Amino acid sequence: MRFGLAFCLLFFFAQYASAQDPSRFAEEVNGFAGTEGNYAAEHRILFTGSSSIRLWVDFKSYFPDHNVINTGFGGSETSDLIHFKKELITNFKPEQVFIYEGDNDINAEEDPVVVLAEISSLVIDLIKKDGIENLVLISAKPSIARWHLKESYKKFNAGLERLASLSDLITYADVWTPMLNKDGSLKKEIFIEDGLHMNKMGYDLWIKEIEPLLISK
């Protein structure tokens, strides 16, 4: 495992990251309490993060041969996942974790560097304290509702990819690129009416990027 200087700097800056009050999600998170026993103990693959995970259409049907868990919650930001790490990740003792955060952070006008600092803090914690050795960072997705922020998202995704390159325990999943047409425009047909969340066609694109990264039984 190799942590570069940039990784350490991001961890340092994470100490100065601002955060909303995570208690707004307490009731929703409490709904996951005690559900660990609903899953086989071996080869658990956990997906967590904001509403693009929570609202994944027909989630389990995409993973018929895998022991998957979905702990996506609300319109969360990275600081919320850090706060509820134990309840949403470590209590389940997963072998592999897919994380989708950053989308709402950027929309809330957080600097991409600050968001990356928070994610680096979470990743370091999961690896060093919780012993999770297979983490996948899912890129922020483009959307109709937030297309005006595309440059900030692209900057964030580039940083996320760089972060993943600093350790062989971390992988980057690019879901941004397949959601665009060849000319760089957005595939608008893959979104529901709110212009933010995806329909099944959107998740069909995601699974093509995610499936090759899944651990095998």
SSE layout:
Layout lengths: L4 H10 L11 H5 L13 E6 L1 H4 L12 E4 L7 H6 L1 H4 L7 E5 L2 H5 L4 H17 L6 E4 L11 H16 L4 E4 L26 H11 L7
Parallel strand pairs: 1-2, 1-3, 3-4, 4-5
What can be said about this structure in brief?
The chain is of the alpha/beta class and 217 residues long.
Overview of this protein structure:
- The protein is of the alpha/beta class and 217 residues long.
- It has one domain (44-213): SGNH hydrolase (Rossmann fold), CATH 3.40.50.
- It is 36% helix and 11% strand.
- The protein contains 9 helices and 5 strands, in the order ααβαβααβααβαβα.
- Strands 2-1-3-4-5 form a 5-stranded parallel beta sheet.
- Helix 1 (5-14) crosses helix 7 (112-128).
- The protein is globular.
- The two termini are 24 Å apart.
- Would you state the CATH class? Alpha Beta
Radius of gyration: 16 Å
Query: Remind me, CATH topology?
Result: Rossmann fold
Structural class, please? alpha/beta
Mean pLDDT: 92
Strand order of the largest sheet: 2-1-3-4-5
What sequence of helices (H) and strands (E) makes up the elements? Answer: HHEHEHHEHHEHEH
- What is the helix content? 25-40%
Do you know the CATH architecture? 3-Layer(aba) Sandwich
% residues in beta strands: 5-15%
The beta-strand count equals 5
* End-to-end CA span: 24 Å
How would you name the CATH homologous superfamily?
A: SGNH hydrolase
- Quickly count the domains: 1
| Low-confidence region ranges | 1-7, 12-17
Shape: globular
Largest sheet: 5 strands, parallel
Number of helices: 9
